[in-house]
Amino acid sequence: MTIRLGLTGSIGMGKSTTAQMFRDEGVPVWDADATVHELYEKDGLAVAPIAAAFPNAVVEKSVSRDVLKELIASDPTVIAQLEKIVHPLVADSRRKFLANHNDPLVVFDIPLLFETGADEWLDAVLVVTAPADIQKSRVMDRPGMTEQQFKTILSRQTPDAEKRERADHIIETLTLDDTRAAVRNLIAELKGQSDARNRT
């Protein structure tokens, strides 16, 4: 039986790095952000419905994320309209991924995991975390990031403390070596659970 592990964490907590560590260990990872990028690319499945709802948002047959950001900034209700278009397409991609992987463990890398209710269909949730000062330092090092953008992103995310309370597993991402060791330990633990399920 496949164990479906959700991976999440607030911005700057090391989620993408941790997801890559799972891949490096041979664990299949489905990436929600990458899926949305594919949907927005030239002739992606989201292009036509978004063009119908927001004609200005499609440039050269692909969705312009910059235009979407401007639309959302001027009208917050745009987010709900976008989600109605994108979420069913993302869910379909996720189902196909699961159908194509019969591994003992698969990871679902979802930035807004709790916010979208994904914890309801997952077997377990891993939250990656780091102290607030390290988080802020990592985020502010990103090209083009401003203090206001950082605050806006945080305001849309479930607070780190609440994420940790709701998590089944927590990994602190202070150093790469410690994070990698924690990932390997968790993989061994969850694969053991999967094997035990298969024997019953």
UniProtKB/TrEMBL annotation:
One of its GO terms (biological process) is coenzyme A biosynthetic process. Pathway: Cofactor biosynthesis; coenzyme A biosynthesis; CoA from (R)-pantothenate: step 5/5. Keywords: ATP-binding, Coenzyme A biosynthesis, Cytoplasm, Kinase, Nucleotide-binding, Transferase. ATP binds at G12, M13, G14, K15, S16, T17. The keyword Flavoprotein does not apply. Coiled coil: none annotated. GO terms for molecular function: ATP binding; dephospho-CoA kinase activity. CDD domains: DPCK. InterPro entries: Depp_CoAkinase (IPR001977), P-loop_NTPase (IPR027417). It catalyses: 3'-dephospho-CoA + ATP = ADP + CoA + H(+). Signal peptide: none annotated. GO terms for cellular component: cytoplasm. Its EC number is 2.7.1.24. The keyword Nucleus does not apply. Pfam families: CoaE (PF01121). It is found in: Cytoplasm. Belongs to the CoaE family. Catalyzes the phosphorylation of the 3'-hydroxyl group of dephosphocoenzyme A to form coenzyme A. This is Dephospho-CoA kinase. The gene is coaE.
